[in-house]
Design brief:
By secondary structure, this protein is an alpha/beta fold. The chain has six helices and nine strands.
Length: 231
């Protein structure tokens, strides 16, 4: 009986220790994940993409935390403008961070309307990064155009935006959207691919920008922020 009691006591001790370690891991996991980023030696150009969802951003402190570039949401669809774009656009430049603007492309509006919306929001700046177009299902409308219909509208958007800014657009893609609409094989532009935690294995060409996480935490930004690396 004493031996069995001893084993039971040891079991309870081990179980308690395991539970404590598990609890500590659960508490620390968000902090560890929030600090993780790919090697700066391998990927020297790293940065963020932001919108009004990040609230006020203390841009001046970001370069010291490894932010060398930022893509800033300017517009969405045919009439929505990001309310923080102008402030973020000016503050990123003041902080010495390379900046680019992006547009969230909706499946519900013509490409010409969306291009006009983006062009009205984003000033021409020869030093800016190429404009980017965000192509994904998350938050998009339920309408599902045909592949040819989608490509016709996207081509119109690209033609008008590139004519305005004199730079070829960058395509932000999720794997499911790329597969559904055959985007990267049909549109020969630089790719910004989303694949959290490991390098993307999709796309018709090697990525130019890789979104590596959506949970980076930085001093000066409340909550999580998307983290990217650029070739």
């Amino acid at each position: 009986m004493h031996g069995r009691m001893g084993r039971a006591a040891r079991y309870l001790l081990w179980a308690g220790a395991a539970i404590s370690l598990l609890g500590a891991a659960v508490l620390l996991a968000p902090h560890i994940a929030g600090a993780w980023h790919p090697s700066a030696a391998r990927y020297p150009h790293q940065g963020i993409d932001v919108s009004h969802h990040q609230g006020h951003i203390a841009w001046a402190g970001l370069p010291a935390q490894g932010v060398s570039f930022a893509y800033i949401k300017a517009s969405e669809g045919g009439d929505h403008r990001d309310r923080s774009f102008a402030a973020n656009w000016a503050a990123a430049q003041k902080a010495g961070i390379a900046r680019g603007a992006y547009h969230y492309f909706t499946l519900c509006r013509p490409g010409a309307d969306q291009a006009a919306n983006f062009i009205a929001a984003v000033p021409v700046d020869a030093a800016a990064l190429p404009p980017a177009v965000d192509l994904e299902y998350m938050g998009n409308c339920l309408r599902q155009p045909t592949r040819d219909g989608f490509h016709a509208e996207l081509a119109t958007f690209i033609r008008l935006v590139e004519a305005r800014y004199g730079k070829r657009v960058v395509l932000y893609l999720t794997e499911e959207f790329d597969r559904a609409y055959d985007v990267s094989p049909r549109v020969d532009r630089l790719l910004w691919l989303r694949h959290l935690g490991s390098e993307p294995r999709f796309g018709a060409r090697p990525w130019h920008v890789w979104q590596v996480s959506s949970f980076r935490r930085l001093d000066g930004i409340d909550g999580r922020v998307d983290w990217n690396v650029m070739r």
